[in-house]
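Review form for a predicted model. The reviewer records the input and the model, then writes brief findings.
Reviewer: anonymous (R2)
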Amino acid sequence: MTTASQSARTGQYKAGLAWFAAIGSLWVLVLIFLGAFTTSTNSGMAFPDWPLSNGSVNPAGWLTQLDKFAEHSHRLSASLMGLITIAIAVWIHRTESRVWLRRLAVAAVCLVIFQGVVGGLRVLLDGMQVNMVNTSVGRLFAMLHACLAQLFVCNLIAIALACTRPWIERSLPVADGVRRLGVACCALLFTQLAIAAVLRHSFAGLAIPTFPYATADGGLLPAVWSFPVAIHFAHRTMAVVLTVFLIWFALKIRLDRGAPLLMRAGATLLIVLLGLQITLGAQIIWTYRSVAMTTGHVLVGALTLALAFTLTWLAHRDPIHRLA
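Model under review:
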């Protein structure tokens, strides 16, 4: 790298980069929605090959057949996401003086490439069965694919927020307690989404077919246990734990004098998303896994993590900013 290009790097606000990074962080949510729709319609194996679809980038019938449309649109949007991520990383590498932000951008590129490979292995190894958990090797990779998607969301949000004017120019003197609680909530949310990925790809969505109780006669515990029942029950139990932590986190932000109005509004929205997510979870049971309810539940789960991470990342702004 030449001295001239090094001197061009700054930590100042760049409107073009900020907007482009924001678009990238929004597009990843579109990608998750398409992935959730693909899973909800059982379309993950609409095409048995990868990276092409039936040997083509424009396979016959993908605009008229639902399963092919779901899977191929997901693949196309993932390819676009890869290009967006690389563009963000190059832009940041050429213009940003903040070393930690350049490293985040490199991590995003590594994640998006790895995510694409994992998605491909989900397809290519679907024929190999794992009898112990009644699933395929491909579906095991699908579980990992779902978890990596959540990490990628957080990575892109961190980059996008770090490029905004408020992050660069304003202090956010939030209390340490808010930071610690935010980290705990993000860890719990990620754990819950990982459990949900296992549940989805183990066909355990209706392993407990009643809600809110675990049995038809009002029991709190399932009458009969198996792996699908256990993973489903773990998902419900974690939902209770998360409800407590997210409400606590939101209240902590609302009462923190150092939290700006935007963070306080975000805390309120977090509770709204929590209520919506619980409602959608109940509707999945009551509608016997309606595609709309299941897809919505996955999307709102990702949005909840995205918002909780946004609030947590903002709370850490001052310590992180000192790294520059």
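Findings: The first helix runs from residue 3 to 7.
Further findings: The mean pLDDT is 93.
Recommendation: see findings above.
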